[in-house]
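Retro notes
What went well: the complex prediction finally ran end to end.
Inputs used:
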Amino acid sequence: MSTQCSAAAGTLESNDIFITITATGEKGVSINLSSIVMHQFGDDIKAAIQQSMDASGLDGVEVTAQDKGALECTIKARMETAIARFKEKM
Amino acid sequence: MRNRTFLFMPGNNPGMLASAQCLGADVVIFDLEDAVAQQEKDAARTLVRHALEELRPQGVGITVRINGLDTPYWQADMEAVVRAGTDFVMVPKLENAEQVLQVAQAIESAREKYHVTAQIKALAIIESPLGLENAYAIASAHKALQGILLGAEDFTAAMGAQRTAEGAEIAHARARLVTACKAAGILAIDTPYPFVSDLEGLEKDAAYAVQLGFDGKAVISPHHVHRVNQAFMPAPEKVNWAKRVMAAARRADEEGKGAVSLDGMMIDLPIIKRAERILLLADA
């Protein structure tokens, strides 16, 4: 997998979340989250992202998530799309 | 479930999907076709599936408009939508009965694949001259098809006609489509009024659809929902008349009479059906 490999899904519109998955060339998955509701739901959003990553089997990637108030089903959907797009590019 | 308004909502907009049950429409249509850019088809399909599985909007009928049978997207759309559960799958650009059979087969295959027990019905959009010419064949092709929507924008473009607020250019298409649907016993759904800020024109357009016998009307703006709902609501005097018809019919039935009169009018089956429809629309 190239360290240049990267894929994204979602938007920066209200109620959405913009996800970028980038290959790092190192072991492990790191998650960088920014959210307009970080204080209230930051842990829940991270948990939802982590759950999607665990199910994906991907390793050696960084997930950057810019949340604009997405519901859990939106987070799951955007993660699923970003992961599928990333795997297509691997 | 009432079918006065069918509100189109872009399938790749999470905020709108979340508000689906709050906008007053009888049915919402999550759109995977025209409202979604080519490069976002996968994202919209996935988002709609998750929204259907997890948000489960209550008190509103759910339809998903999938991409056309001539695209590479429609089969994946169909599987996602059937798997997640929806009331209707809406298929655009149908032109013949064979395509209806293809859609019905695809629904059944997806139901089997994902062990879906609920019935999932289809709605068609007729939006071409050929589709209109085959309207009754389409309407009566398979019991899975429960209604047809007239797509006037593509239809008028194909006809080389100009779309106007008055709608003279679609008068024949409307009459033909509503007749075909009634002959087949399925829902006739009128085309959306495209001039979003012209609310006076919308009211006239909706009243005309009611006059022709359409069962409901598609809308492209939440601002149109209330006015179209109102247009399809029968007047109080009609509701009162329908209640009296049904009471007279029940009396005749109890007394073993084949027919009965009300206000000098013979109450027969067509009159009873009309009264039933009025009461259904009035939710009375």
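What we learned: DSSP finds two helices and four strands in chain A.
What to try next: split runs per interface for comparison.
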